[in-house]
Each structure stands twice: as C-alpha cells, then as structure tokens.
Structure to design on (273 residues):
C-alpha cells in the first residue's frame, strides 16, 4: 500500500521570512546601504557647512530659513545617489537569483511565482522605508544643527518639513521597488542596472519644463516628484516653467512601484523561469 504525503501550502508569512533571510545573509547589501546613508547625511552636512560659512562671510541677515531646506537638508547629489543604490539593490534581490540559478529552486518549492515576487516586494519596501526614514531624518537634523549656528535652522514642525521628510524617506522604497520590477523583467545584472539608472535619473533630463507637453512627461518621473515635494514654497506664477502639483507628485510616488510590481507579477506568471 502506497501512501502519499501532502505538503502543506506555503504561507505568505513564510515567504516573507525566507526573503528576509536572503537579504540579511548578504553582507554586501548592508555595506552598500551603510555607505549610501553616510554619503547622503554627509552631503547634507557639507551643504549646510557651505551656507554656514557664506552667512559668516556675508555678515548680513540670513535668508529665510525655509530657503535652506531643499538644498541643505535634502541635497540632490546625495539623494540621487540614494536613488541609484536603492534601485540597484532592489534589482539585485531578483537578478542574483536568476544568475545563480536559485530561482529554479524557489519556483519548485513555491509554484505560485506571483506570491514570491510579492514577498520580495514586501521585504524590499519595509527595508528601504526604514533606511529612507533614518537617512532623511539624519540628514535633516545634521543640517539644522549646523545652520542653527547662524540662526538659520528650522524645527521639524516647520511648515513643509514633515512633507519633505516623508517624501525623502519614501524615495528609497519607491526606487527599490522600481528596480525590483525591472530586475524581474530584464533578469540580467548589467542591463538591469543601466536601465534603472537611465529610467530614474537620465530620462527626466530629456524633458524640460518650458513646454507643457514636455513638462507633463517630466512630472511623471520619480525624481521630479521628489523635487516638488521637498520644495517648500509655492511655484512662481511669473515663471516660464510649468511646475508640478503636490497631489500629482504623490500620485507619481504611488504609481511607479505599483505598476512595477504589477507588471513583474504578470510577467513571472506568463513565462518560464
């Protein structure tokens, strides 16, 4: 008499635990995250230090404290680097498994490939939200401590600061999930990294904000949405540039990771490993 053992279905919580173990075991990921975090916070310190010295040399009353927020507390070089790192690490969580062949073992153990992608996305989003929150808070506090020496700092409750902090914190998971989605679609390390860098940072520069159609395309990009959300003053009505809206920027933040993961889930369900 032959008996058949029926394996219990894999729970989604088990998939999340497995994906967390995979990420936690990669020491290079933590080194990369640590260096990126220090670079962003260091960029904020350097920018604030430059303004501190400029104010000292000018010997005049400082600009409005709010003017320092997007340039010192949220420096573009630092956050653009964070976008690249988050997108790259998000892609590696998938691409590395295709390169090593581990993805075949994963799909044999869990035939529901869409659930595997969703588990990866959940862990990636949680990790990079924590990283983004720590980085944005650290960069803000460091910059304001420096600027307070010239009475140009602002408290965390200052108008515009909470929105800028949240937008900067969520920038990392948005880019990481975008990279993860691209990794599922492309499955090749170098090609995925190049596509991720081009999509997140290079493509927006092609479209200016001086023409309506071009500005509309530019405003659909993640980096443009982030720049609008950290800007804590109203757009100049006399400017020849078409500015993005705050609700539109938040919509961009939501749609990019949602579309990336939805397309990734659809792709893995329709093709072989």
């Amino acid at each position: 008499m032959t008996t058949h053992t029926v394996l219990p279905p894999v729970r989604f919580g088990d998939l999340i635990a497995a994906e967390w173990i995979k990420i936690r075991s990669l020491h290079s990921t933590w080194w990369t995250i640590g260096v990126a975090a220090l670079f962003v916070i260091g960029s904020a310190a350097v920018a604030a230090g430059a303004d501190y010295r400029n104010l000292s040399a000018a010997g005049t009353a400082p600009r409005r404290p709010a003017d320092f927020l997007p340039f010192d507390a949220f420096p573009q070089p630092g956050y653009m680097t964070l976008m690249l790192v988050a997108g790259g690490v998000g892609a590696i969580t998938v691409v590395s498994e295709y390169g090593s062949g581990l993805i075949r073992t994963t799909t044999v153990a869990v035939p529901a490939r869409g659930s595997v992608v969703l588990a990866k996305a959940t862990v990636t989003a949680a990790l990079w939200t924590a990283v983004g929150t720590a980085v944005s808070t650290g960069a803000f506090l460091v910059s304001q401590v420096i600027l307070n020496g010239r009475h140009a700092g602002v408290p965390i409750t200052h108008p515009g600061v909470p929105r800028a902090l949240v937008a900067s914190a969520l920038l990392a998971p948005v880019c990481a999930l975008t990279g993860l989605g691209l990794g599922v679609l492309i499955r090749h390390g170098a090609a995925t990294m190049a596509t991720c860098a081009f999509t997140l940072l290079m493509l927006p520069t092609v479209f200016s904000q001086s023409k309506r159609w071009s500005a509309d395309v530019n405003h659909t990009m993640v980096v443009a949405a982030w720049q609008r959300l950290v800007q804590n003053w109203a757009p100049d009505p006399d400017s020849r540039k078409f500015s993005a809206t705050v609700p539109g920027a938040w919509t961009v933040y939501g749609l990019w990771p949602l579309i990336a993961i939805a397309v990734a889930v659809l792709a893995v369900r329709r093709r072989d490993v």
